[in-house]
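Inputs:
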Amino acid sequence: MELVLSNFDLYLSAFRLTIGLFLVSAVGSLLLGTLLAAMRVGPIAFMSKAATVYITVVRNTPLLIIFVFVIIGLPKLGILFRSVEELGISSFFFRACLALTLYTSTFVAEAIRSGINAVPLGQAEAARAIGLTFGGTMTQVVLPQAFRATVPPLASVFIALLKNTSVAYAFGILEATARMKYFTNISGNDLPIFLIFAAGYVVLVEIISFGANRLERRWRVAR
Amino acid sequence: MTVSDTATSDNPHQPGTDDPLVVLDHVDKHFGDLHVLRDINVSIRRGEVVVVIGPSGSGKSTLCRTINRLETIDGGTISLNGVPLPEEGKELAALRAEVGMVFQSFNLFAHKTILENVTLGLTKVRKTPKKSADEAAMRQLKRVGVAEQAGKYPAQLSGGQQQRVAIARALAMEPQLMLFDEPTSALDPEMIKEVLDVMVGLAKPEQGEPMTMVVVTHEMGFARTAADRVLFMADGQIVEENTPEEFFTNPRSDRAKDFLGKILKH
């Protein structure tokens, strides 16, 4: 316990990295997930099929294997992310975010698809009837309403994402779980260290829940 | 629109030209085994008000929805201004902007205010700048009598108000044709009149040209005052086609006699 408190800067920087992995992957998976959901409900059969196959394959693959593929597999295929490093971003950090995004986007896509299905068909028909294209119908009418119905399941998806960032620990990224391991290795007393790191995760998860509740309440009023 | 025509006293609906706006030619459609539209042939002139009536399941709503291709057809052609309806895509979207549609269940965009409901098509489809879109939308909301509700959300309005907003939303696009798919069927009786009044105002305007309208409805009063022609449908076919006066007083087919007997009895 004292070990962690006297090295609290290490504790904080580890959680900063956890938050960084979470935020980048959350934005990435929200964008990719929305695109996948739109493709899946869209009128082009080929796109719909492609999105379905992607979701089926990636969602049913363990996250650890996706990490192995992105962090070890891709470089062996000659994809080295040099342009990312030239931007001054750690390529390991980027690849961890990529793995988390690829994985989480499938859950986001399914949550959004359920939200899309909750929007009455008449909304899309009215949008088409005033001359909006499929893209306009989705972005202006269907998705804004679908997101509202999607907040509770998306909160669960993002809570899972936050905790899944700990998988990055296995690939040498010094996020919270890796730092916890570091402390328990040099201290004999594991339990307090475990508790203080668990508390960090609990606080972050509560922030996500709180934000989701706020969004849900605000959007309920505005209609 | 021009206001040049003053010869509107006798019959304001006699269209000046006989070039048809909408032509349905041998249209066929199935829902699985159900043959919902059987060899439909209709031609609608500019400025004409056509009322489609018939028992439920007769295909009248489907017919209305095929005209802006919310329903696809299996056979025949539908053309607007002599041009066949395009496949799904940008071209079809552009065409739908020319055809206003009013639904039975209003279908106002639930997450947008009344004003935003009316301006959406203008800003996103017509690319009208926001300020003039707002002005145009307010003009239409005034025309249907709900301008003071502009800042509210659809759920805060009565059914009659919502349906009038839906009409304003369609009119804001300045369509060549308006489709009404049972516009008063979901309304409480005391709200039906306010919607029909707006529709009569479009069909028989005090100034300007009448709107070309296809109206699926059971409102016989509306058909008598505003329609130029009544199409009676049963089992996916147009069974009878006549002026409202002739149709209501002197129906020819047994199906029409039977139907009118059922709805006019009380």
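Chain B touches chain A through 32 residues (CB under 8 Å). Flag for discussion at group meeting.
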